[in-house]
């Protein structure tokens, strides 16, 4: 994808404005990227049209070319959607906090139960793992092994009682947790290979029996396009508060994350990244966004472009200051605004010989003053800004009225400008700085 986008970039590079054609061209590539990342088609459609809207309304950036700007909007939007509402586990006011896991068979619930238990134990909690998956023959044993590795207690039905009732086990586990001073209960439930009414009913029954503080939907990142139907079915059948994405160590590009988030509106809280207990992390929206878009290098380029732009602006201004040529009121205003925006100019000036005095003056710029100064300068005509000598008494009065300040203030500003201009000429005459843009070579 990166290659294709780079070619879109170069074809758009020279243009200054974000046109519909620019946006469409870039969005076509974005669409392909999302589909390749296995984001579900309806989600791709919604997302792309949303981005188009935002891109149309966006101000044209001076730092980025149109394609870069669209990519940046896409990335920002993706991070925001994936990360909006990111939140921590909610703990019950009165322990135990009950966390119930739901998801298809093989999604990674049992593994996740162990990871979560270990993670919570390391934070000083005393979790209890509950085996409410009595469907598969080895499920209870599997959880017991996981519990041992995580060094966490496991609550399971007594062996030899025939097929147990998962709802009863779950309900009983809460009392057990209270008696044994467990402050967190993690309920591992059964899954099926596909969506199944009986399964949904069992999960809903367990939910009703224990009123969990959190129901977490565990979903395999490799599920791809099916993420939408699966998430929707669990949302309707059981309901859930948060999402855990598993098997992110695989080569899935993670489109499921966007699909599930988009369809259910529920936050993705954790990421499972391997079979070992420690392969577990909070969910990072920015990492997921660049994984889905698969253009980390392009995003790095965009960041660099923005940084370079800021530096160039600073250098350009410093160059004008040094040469003292054509220094106008517009520059004066821009200079002051830049001082507010950026430390680097001050630093830049500080590094230049003979600029100490200038830096002093810049330091004296009162930030609150800037808005008034800006208002005054903006009330001047372009001709006045270019050649402030023409600003006579009647012009001063007009400018004062236009900017809502006194005539004295306008006069003071003009005087300050002439001082600055004079000083700059002196400085420029007194030295040559090789290599500075606009300076002497
Ligand atoms: P459950 O049926 O939902 O309880 O799923 P399991 O926890 O039994 O996991 C199913 C399989 O996926 C097991 O072989 C796990 O070792 C494996 N698994 C679970 N989570 C991950 C993960 O994050 N990465 C990888 N590579 N494998 C995982
Ligand atoms: Mg299981």
Automatic annotation (TrEMBL):
Reaction catalyzed: GTP + H2O = GDP + phosphate + H(+)
Protein biosynthesis recorded as keyword: no
Source superkingdom: Bacteria
Record-linked InterPro entries: AAA+_ATPase, P-loop_NTPase, Signal_recog_part_SRP54_M_sf, Signal_recog_particl_SRP54_hlx, Signal_recog_particle_SRP54_M, SRP, SRP54, SRP54_GTPase_dom
Family listed: Belongs to the GTP-binding SRP family. SRP54 subfamily.
Job description of the protein: Involved in targeting and insertion of nascent membrane proteins into the cytoplasmic membrane. Binds to the hydrophobic signal sequence of the ribosome-nascent chain (RNC) as it emerges from the ribosomes. The SRP-RNC complex is then targeted to the cytoplasmic membrane where it interacts with the SRP receptor FtsY.
Free-text domain note: Composed of three domains: the N-terminal N domain, which is responsible for interactions with the ribosome, the central G domain, which binds GTP, and the C-terminal M domain, which binds the RNA and the signal sequence of the RNC.
Protein name: Signal recognition particle protein
Taxonomy of the source species: Bacteria, Bacillati, Actinomycetota, Actinomycetes, Streptosporangiales
Gene: ffh
């Amino acid at each position: 994808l990166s290659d294709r986008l780079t070619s879109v970039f170069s074809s758009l590079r020279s243009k200054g404005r974000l046109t519909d054609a620019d946006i469409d061209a870039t969005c076509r590539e974005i669409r392909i990227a999302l589909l390749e990342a296995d984001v579900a088609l309806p989600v791709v459609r919604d997302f792309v049209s949303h981005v188009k809207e935002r891109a149309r309304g966006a101000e044209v950036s001076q730092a980025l070319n149109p394609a870069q700007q669209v990519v940046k909007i896409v990335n920002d939007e993706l991070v925001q959607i994936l990360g909006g509402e990111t939140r921590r586990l909610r703990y019950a006011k009165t322990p135990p906090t009950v966390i119930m896991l739901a998801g298809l068979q093989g999604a990674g619930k049992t593994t996740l139960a162990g990871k979560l238990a270990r993670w919570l134990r390391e934070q000083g909690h005393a979790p209890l793992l509950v085996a409410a998956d009595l469907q598969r023959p080895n499920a209870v044993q599997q959880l017991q092994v996981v519990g041992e590795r995580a060094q966490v207690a496991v609550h399971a039905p007594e062996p030899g009682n025939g097929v147990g009732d998962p709802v009863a086990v779950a309900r009983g586990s809460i009392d057990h947790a209270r008696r044994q001073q467990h402050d967190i209960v993690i309920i591992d439930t059964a899954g099926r290979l596909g969506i199944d009414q009986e399964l949904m009913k069992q999960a809903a029954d367990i939910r009703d029996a224990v009123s969990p503080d959190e129901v977490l939907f565990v979903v395999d990142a490799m599920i791809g396009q099916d993420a939408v139907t699966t998430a929707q079915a669990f949302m309707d059948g059981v309901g859930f508060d948060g999402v855990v994405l598993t098997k992110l160590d695989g080569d899935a590009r993670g489109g499921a994350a966007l699909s599930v988030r988009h369809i259910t509106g529920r936050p993705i809280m954790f990421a499972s990244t391997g079979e070992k207990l420690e392969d577990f992390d909070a969910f990072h929206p920015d990492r997921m966004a660049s994984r889905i878009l698969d253009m980390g290098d392009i995003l790095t380029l965009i960041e660099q472009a923005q940084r370079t732009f800021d530096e160039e602006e600073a250098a350009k201004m410093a160059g004008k200051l040094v040469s003292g040529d054509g220094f106008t009121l517009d520059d004066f205003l821009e200079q002051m605004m830049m001082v507010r925006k950026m430390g680097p100019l001050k630093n830049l000036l500080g590094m230049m010989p003979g600029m100490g005095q200038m830096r002093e003056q810049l330091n004296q710029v009162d930030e609150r003053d800037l808005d008034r100064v800006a208002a005054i300068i903006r009330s001047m005509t372009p001709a006045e800004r270019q050649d402030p000598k023409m600003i006579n008494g009647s012009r001063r009065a007009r400018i004062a009225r236009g900017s809502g300040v006194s005539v004295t203030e306008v006069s003071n500003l003009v005087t300050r400008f002439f001082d600055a201009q004079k000083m700059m000429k002196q400085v420029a005459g007194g030295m040559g700085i090789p290599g500075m843009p606009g300076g002497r070579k």
